[in-house]
């Protein structure tokens, strides 16, 4: 019978996501994550409605804030870092991000290309003849 | 040191032993890593819905567009509910590690209430949109919107059912190892839903201007 309260102190095959080094999470980690996440969320909502930033740059700013906030969640809530005990989790995450990028940007690229090569509609053809 | 020694006493593992000879990882590590892979595949599925939304965003078919339909203050309230519930879910995980039953129930119930408020806000928003004639069948934009946001809402609802089940299981079975594993998988699920929501509010609700 194993002790139910026993905590692993050493993970030679890597540590699972969501568990901090040594097996004990800390209140401070979650609190820091929450603080960063709230600041970045409010910054996103502010950036979407502001005239202070040059208009065409707003989407880029929003994307940067979103990627930053996702990073904060991964590091402070999932506890996945760059240490050797997170290698498995990090490699899986990197592959997931790669597939997500392929799906999203691939779809946008292909659909924009198809749209540009569409046969003009009847109305547009009539306008061209005039 | 033999292989059997490293299996029974991994803390004394010598650095020189290659990974292939160290035996299987602990079941906690295997279960969490497997669930982590599931979460990543779930995110890939969401990415297809995001791609569909991005392609169909401007195809409103003469109907209402995002600027007319979305209320940013409302979305900020939903976001804060989900974000703070992610935080309390983390505190719940800390209580589980300490095997502190009272703290676990406290943070579990707060997480549940915040998640349920999120779902309530989302459903009332959907109902308002449908009353205003912006139902999923109105345009390709609205079909994509309801599919993406509705799929996230469905995940949150399933997460709430899971959390309620786990609180009942802790009540009847206590903190057994398999219960603790399920609970830690649930906290990962909940954090992942929050990450997907960052994409939703950035692309769907804040991206409506451009």
Provide structural commentary.
By secondary structure, chain A is mainly alpha-helical. Chain A has helices at residues 27-49, 58-76, 87-116, 122-129. Chain A has one domain (27-129). In chain A, helix 1 runs antiparallel to helix 2 (58-76). Chain B has a single domain, classed as Four Helix Bundle (Hemerythrin (Met), subunit A) (Up-down Bundle), CATH 1.20.120. Chain B has 7 helices and no strands. The radius of gyration of chain B is 21 Å and the shape is globular. Mean pLDDT of chain B is 89; it is low at 1-10.
The secondary-structure class of chain A comes to mainly alpha
Main sheet: strands, sense, barrel of chain B? none
Task: Name the CATH superfamily classification of chain B.
Answer: Cytochrome c oxidase, subunit III, four-helix bundle
- The coarse silhouette of chain A is elongated
Oligomer: heterodimer
Cα end-to-end separation of chain B:
64 Å
Sum this structure up briefly.
Chain A is mainly alpha-helical and 130 residues long. Chain A is 62% helix and 0% strand.
Question: What brief labels describe this structure?
Answer:
heterodimer; A: 130 residues; 62% helix; 0% strand; disordered N terminus; B: 210 residues; mainly alpha; Four Helix Bundle (Hemerythrin (Met), subunit A)
């Amino acid at each position: 019978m194993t002790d139910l309260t026993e905590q692993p102190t050493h993970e030679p095959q890597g540590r699972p996501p969501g568990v901090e080094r040594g097996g004990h999470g800390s209140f401070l980690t979650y609190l820091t994550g929450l603080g960063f996440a709230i600041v970045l969320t409010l910054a996103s909502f502010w950036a979407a409605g502001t005239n202070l930033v040059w208009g065409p740059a707003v989407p880029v700013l929003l994307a940067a804030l979103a990627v930053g906030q996702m990073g904060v969640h991964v590091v402070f809530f999932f506890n996945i870092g760059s240490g050797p005990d997170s290698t498995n989790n990090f490699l899986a995450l990197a592959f997931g991000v790669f597939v997500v990028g392929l799906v999203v940007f691939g779809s946008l690229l292909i659909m924009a290309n198809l749209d540009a090569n569409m046969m003009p509609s009847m109305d547009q053809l009539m306008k061209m003849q005039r | 040191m033999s292989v059997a020694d490293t299996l029974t006493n991994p803390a004394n593992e010598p650095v020189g032993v290659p990974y292939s000879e160290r035996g299987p990882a602990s079941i906690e590590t295997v279960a969490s890593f497997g669930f982590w892979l599931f979460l990543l595949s779930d995110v890939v599925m969401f990415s297809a819905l995001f791609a569909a939304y991005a392609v169909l965003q401007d195809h409103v078919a003469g109907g209402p567009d995002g600027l007319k339909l979305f209320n940013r203050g409302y979305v900020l309230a939903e976001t804060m509910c989900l974000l703070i519930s992610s935080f309390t879910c983390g505190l719940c995980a800390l209580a589980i590690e300490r095997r502190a039953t009272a703290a676990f129930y406290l943070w579990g119930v707060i997480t549940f209430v915040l998640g349920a408020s999120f779902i309530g806000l989302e459903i009332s928003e959907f109902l308002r949109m449908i009353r205003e004639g912006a139902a999923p069948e109105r345009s390709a934009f609205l079909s994509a919107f309801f599919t993406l946001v509705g799929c996230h809402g469905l995940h949150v609802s399933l997460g709430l059912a899971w959390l309620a089940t786990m609180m009942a299981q802790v009540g009847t079975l206590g903190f057994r190892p398999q219960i603790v594993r399920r609970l830690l998988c649930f906290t990962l699920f909940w954090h992942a839903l929050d990450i997907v929501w960052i994409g939703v509010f950035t692309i769907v609700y804040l991206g409506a201007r451009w």
